[in-house]
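Handout, section 4.2: multi-component inputs.
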Amino acid sequence: MLNKYTTVYHASTVSEVQTILKNIAGLSIVAGCTEIARRQTGRALHLPANVLALARVPELCTMTKTERYIEFGPSVTLDEILKLGRKNVPDVLFDCVSGIANPGVRAVATIGGNISAKGQRLSAFAPLLALDARLEIRTPYDAAWIPMARYFSNTGKEQPRDPEFISRIRVPTESWDIAIYRRLGQEGIVTDQTASFAFLVKFQKNILADIRVAYAGRFFFRKREFENLIIGRTLPLSEKDMINLMDKAELFFGKDLFPPSYERKCLFNLLEESLRELT
Amino acid sequence: MIIPFELNGNMVYIDSNPGERLVHILRRRFNLLTAKEGCLSGRCGSCMVLLDGKPVPSCIVPVFQIRNSSIVTLEHFSATPEYHDVMEGFANAGVSMCGFCDAGKIFIAHAIVSSETRMSKDEIKAMFAGNMCRCTNVDDLVAGVKNAIALRRKRTNAK
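Output:
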């Protein structure tokens, strides 16, 4: 179906974006549009009635690096992130971005689009969740920094909010002793089985100082309670610890939150495989 | 919606449905047939064009995204010396050019040859991940790219 009545709004500054958001109701924000293109096979893409294109807003296409974090504009393409090199990007994020689609698609797809695609969570979601990324959310009137885990509802369902958009993504660049990223599903394409898993560990001598576990697919999880259960343990973990932790994981990633399925089994396999690195 | 963009060095304006895929605009409005309609999901590389100098599958780009951008198709690119470096490099490596995914192979090779970073064999192979060529094996493509890099270096040094 051709969507002749789609109106596309182009902004050239962030304040223009805010003005458009304030004045036009029911806007859909897009950047690279690769996710829209992926879901459709028709001659023309069926777009919502009102579209706000952010891909060409220069302020949203910049990257900044400080000693403690790296900040991306949401319209930074995945290709540009890879060009920074492994030294400048956290390992899990670099591994994840380099595995997304192919170089042609990565030249168009944006990091903001990757994390805010509706429905199925895409590859960069779990690594950013695990890295404790913070998002600068702008409404027509103000801006606020919100941890990514808090911004997206924990059940994976969309929350109704005022018109707003992500204007910066701040990713801490602290180093991790173990950084594991795994992608489930067919390589290079997104299907219902596609999910991503990130596992980060930091030691101090033989004490586990910090651990992060995140999973994102049809559902996404980052359970601080589960992480806190492991923090402070002496390494290497014993077989008894492993059994105990996997039993606890069954409780934390409960069946009400994540129904029994192939994906759930994959999550537990990945978790067990990752925890084995600590034995 | 009126969309201005630069196509093969000329400024053009089209009145189009904003959701129309770029590959269809190029083929149907401008009769630029080197961008082939393939998978329509950015995986086969047969519709590759240079969008602001970067190789991009034109099937995943809705036309409103190309506003004020520069598009180069293989028709225009084939008149440049960079094209001849790539083609000569491919010919020396025995790369088969059946015509269907030529745009993908040539633009990806051009991107690698023009890149400032020196890529390993595996990195070059990874660059061709978005090009499904059934006539040539990827090792020949890598050899072709290496030949093209040498030719490009020779040409720029000669200047």
